[in-house]
Amino acid sequence: MTEPSGFVEGALRIVTHNPYRRQNGAIEADVEILVDDKRVVLDHIAIFNSTQRHTLAESAARRMGTVGVKMSADSIEQTLERAAEAVWDELKEQEAEEETVDLARGAEPEPREWRIEDFAPERFPTFIYGGPGTLKTYLAGQMAICLRTGLPFLGRAVKACRVLVLDWELDETEYRRRLWHLARSLGLESPPGIYYRRMHRPLLTAIPDIRAEIARLGVEVPLIDSFSIAGCSEKDTAIAGIQALDSLGVTPIIFDHQARTLEKESYAGKQPFGSTFKEIGARAVWQVELANVQPSRWAVEMLLRNQKESFTSKQEEIAMRVSFFSDRVSIEPIDASESVGLVAKLPKLRQVELALGALSPTTCEAITAEVGFKAGPYLTTLKKLGKAHSEPTSERKNAPHTFCAVVPEMPEIVEKEEETTGEAAIEIPTPPGNGSKPVGVLSEWPHCQGCGRMLPICYNRLNRTACPDCAQEGIGVEPMPDLLRRQLADLHTCWQCKGSIECSCMRPDALHTCLSCLLEEVIA
């Protein structure tokens, strides 16, 4: 057996038994560690041909960033030994970061934060993947713009931050061109300040430089496009890549590919290309899929499918339409139920629910004919969820049932006469179980003591008499610190027109109505 050179305490070595393979034999090696002057065998490797031997050496070289070097028989052995040393160094570094704590001590953590609401959790990797031609790079560009500006991403709230695009696929000119086209569709005169780096080296090799750039530029979200091209497709590189990105202390959003769907394979069942540890290592995983039927030559409809979600309930599919114009590219969220090409991509339960809503009242047979598969089990599930109910068509035993969709009740606007003035007023009811009194009536709408403008109706609950701008100057109430002011400037939605309302009640469960909707009711 070949004795390794420099075999010292704590060292890790790959020791070959027969460096020169015999015609029908195997190259065998032990992975050993020296502990207390005793060699402990951690693993045994048997390489039966030169291809396996080179594959192992190339995998080790890729881990150390020396891929592409033509290796002789001697350099293969050296590469394997150096890789073993690198692995051992990584293990020692990870051990130094480990610490045992008592979870009973310390205060309760703050609520979990999201970089993109219910899409990309803060401080954990998010994976977005799809088949060839699914416009992932355009999606990445739109996401980068929204992250930099704070604009909603496909209807979801975004925390603005600095973004660094790490691109292994395009070049600066093409990426800049796409950002200009996307920015125009978002109403921007030009793309915001997004950092870009064209990558050539494998991700694991470039991590030290990436870490330095993130610290220098104050980046909070690195956008990787794509993980497989960055050299992280196999088990060892995928695990190491996820761990390396996690060690940056930021929120990595990773785009990747998947293998082509073969005959009789389910597209939704496909995983990211390569190792399954990509999906295991991410906390949120989304899959991009194109619609079966596209609306036009210059537009494409797609679906984002939530394949994994570790921190909240699994999200519904996000449908979108990508439209191409001469000087811009538009990516807009749409209702999947209104797209002929996307309905078939939805889960079967959702397809049955949509068919029931469109045909209600109807029969199980009619829904089965509409969706193209047996709808009975899914109708039973909808009944258990309270989204459907059924009644027998006659009193005879085993009579067929008629199914109806259960439509959620919308709160009604109640008109009443104001006792003091006699004028018609609008009372805004609150959601059931809120436990609070009605928000108020139009005649009770508060006004700012400073500038005189109308305030959100919820200011009555807070006993606030000034808008945030005047309150900052000490009018009406004590001045608010900037942090509190930002927390109070919360966005709510009018339950009638679905428009955004600036509100400071910090009560997302309270019912909010915008002024224009109230005035329409009064005029009517």
Question: Secondary-structure map with pairings?
Answer:
Blueprint: E1 12-16, E2 27-35, E3 38-47, H1 50-64, H2 73-97, E4 114-116, E5 120-121, E6 126-130, H3 136-149, E7 163-167, H4 172-185, E8 195-198, H5 203-217, E9 221-225, H6 235-246, E10 253-257, H7 277-281, E11 284-290, E12 299-309, E13 318-324, E14 329-334, H8 340-343, H9 348-359, H10 364-371, H11 376-384, E15 388-392, E16 401-405, E17 414-417, E18 424-427, H12 459-462, H13 468-472, H14 482-488, E19 490-493, E20 500-503, H15 515-523
Parallel strand pairs: 6-10, 6-11, 7-8, 7-9, 9-10
Antiparallel strand pairs: 1-2, 2-3, 4-5, 11-12, 12-13, 13-14, 15-16, 17-18, 19-20
Feature tags:
three-stranded antiparallel sheet, Rossmann fold, alpha/beta, about 30% helix, Arc Repressor Mutant, subunit A, 4 domains, globular, nine-stranded mixed sheet, about 525 residues
Describe the protein.
- The chain is of the alpha/beta class.
- The chain has 4 domains: 12-91; 115-343, P-loop containing nucleotide triphosphate hydrolases (Rossmann fold); 348-405, Arc Repressor Mutant, subunit A (Orthogonal Bundle); 414-523, no CATH class.
- It has 15 helices and 20 strands.
- The strands form 6 sheets. The protein has a 9-stranded mixed β-sheet with strand order 8-7-9-10-6-11-12-13-14. It has a 3-stranded antiparallel β-sheet with strand order 1-2-3. The protein has a two-stranded antiparallel sheet with strand order 4-5.
- α6 links the parallel β9 and β10 (253-257).
- The radius of gyration is 30 Å and the shape is globular.
- The protein starts with 11 loop residues before the first strand and ends with a helix.
- The relative contact order is 0.06.
- Mean pLDDT is 74; it is low at 1-12, 17-26, 418-444, 478-491 and 504-510.
